[in-house]
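TL;DR need structure tokens for one chain.
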Amino acid sequence: MGLLEAALTGDRRSTARLITQIENGGGDARANLAQVFPHTGRAHIIGVTGSPGTGKSTLVNELAKAYRVADRQVGVIAVDPTSPFSGGAILGDRIRMRDLAGDPGVFVRSMATRGSLGGLARATADVIKVLDATGFDVIIVETVGAGQSEVEIA
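>> reply
TL;DR here they are.
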């Protein structure tokens, strides 16, 4: 079974690998996205944005817990600043959502902005499609702490 097929059956490790492939780009990523698209359109997508320190992660954490009480599968994309050392996400938002750790109905993925403006990473829309296709009922996207001009989440 290939990476895409395993992800579509709900395998979380394959979903994470597929997301990494999409973030990195390339021919395989484009081919897999083309195959993901017919499986999309079922998830409810929520965007959370605001200035740094206003409680976005706390709100996302509480929203996810409330959806889990309703037995909904929740995917969280936490867009973080890019680390100047590794080029990856700094992971501050993910640490603040530790209440969700260990819940098999929640998938949290941090993404680095990788220089993109607007509060989101370049691959965010494609990662939303992957989470939608792999069975998440609700996808919550938390932007990097943004000012008044970073409104890509809209």
